[in-house]
Specification:
heterodimer, A: alpha+beta, four-stranded antiparallel sheet, 5 helices, globular, B: about 140 residues, mainly alpha, three-stranded parallel sheet
């Protein structure tokens, strides 16, 4: 069983910039929205730190927030992991498709790959294939 | 002066300690309290812990907060603040390619030496090196 970290928050509706700030950061982290304002990430020292800072920033924006460590005791953990994979796999597939293009920009694509990988918390097999495709493509140009 | 932060230092706290020793307090004493603690030894200035003055505010890292608080305005230190911002906080714009690498190295320093005091000492060398390299870039451009 895995450890997860949950961020729960409330933030005033106005000004809306505060809500947008928190939401964008959560999306950028690749967190999954479990319920209304309950976001989840696998628990690692880095994700704990990110959630804690975000919680402090939400309080600065006159909101309320708390960060919890949790284990799932009823429910489908694999289903949750699948949600994380489903969030990164379309982006990996798109990079893979663009790599087949003759006029591809490998440098730009590899930067996109790095951004997707930062949200790939469960080491997707597709991500590994994309990485290998990059290494092979690099060899091509010799 | 005494400075206190949570155990298990990383990129931001190693950078803050380096900055404090170089520019604010030549003989600092760094204290560590367990992760999550909100009570600190009397007289010690907390840094990089949620809620402290010298910590993350408005989407910026603690290193940035210390620069502002002590009115240190130096282009190379500002550049280091940008690097730590990108590594340690969630940013939409990423301009510094060294950020993820420095983050990983700082994490590794803490893991490899297993002690926060030693991590600050060894980490200072990495920041000296970063500062020297950035300064050299500026001088050449």
């Amino acid at each position: 069983m895995r450890n997860w970290i949950l961020l729960i928050y409330k933030i005033p509706n106005e000004p809306s910039a505060g809500r947008v700030f928190a939401w964008r950061k959560l999306k950028k982290l690749g967190a999954v929205l479990l319920h209304d304002a309950v976001w989840v990430l696998p628990s690692t020292p880095q994700t704990r730190e990110h959630f804690r800072w975000l919680a402090a920033e939400i309080v600065e924006l006159n909101g309320e927030s708390s960060v919890w460590e949790a284990r799932l005791t009823a429910g489908d953990e694999q289903e949750l992991i699948n949600q994380f994979s489903a969030a990164v796999e379309p982006a990996y597939r798109q990079i893979m498709a663009e790599m087949k293009n003759k006029n591809r920009d490998l440098a730009a694509l590899s930067r996109r790959y790095q951004q997707v990988r930062a949200q790939d918390y469960f080491g997707s097999e597709l991500g590994r294939q994309v990485r290998e495709a990059f290494i092979a493509a690099k060899g091509d140009s010799k | 002066m005494k400075w206190v932060t949570w155990q298990d230092v990383g990129i931001d706290r190693i950078g803050c300690a380096w900055l404090i020793r170089k520019h604010i307090d030549p003989a600092p004493e760094f204290l560590f309290v367990p992760e999550g603690a909100s009570k600190f030894p009397p007289g010690a200035e907390p840094f990089d812990v949620p809620g402290a003055k010298l910590s993350h505010h408005g989407g910026h890292c603690s290193f940035y907060a210390i620069l502002r608080e002590y009115k240190l305005n130096d282009p190379i230190l500002n550049r280091i603040a940008q690097i730590i911002d990108e590594a340690d906080t969630v940013q939409d714009v990423n301009l510094e390619d060294v950020a993820p690498g420095l983050d990983l190295i700082c994490r590794g320093i803490r893991l490899a030496c297993g002690d926060d005091h030693i991590a600050l000492e060894r980490g200072a060398m990495v920041y000296d090196a970063l500062h020297a390299a950035l300064k050299d870039q500026v001088q050449r451009s």
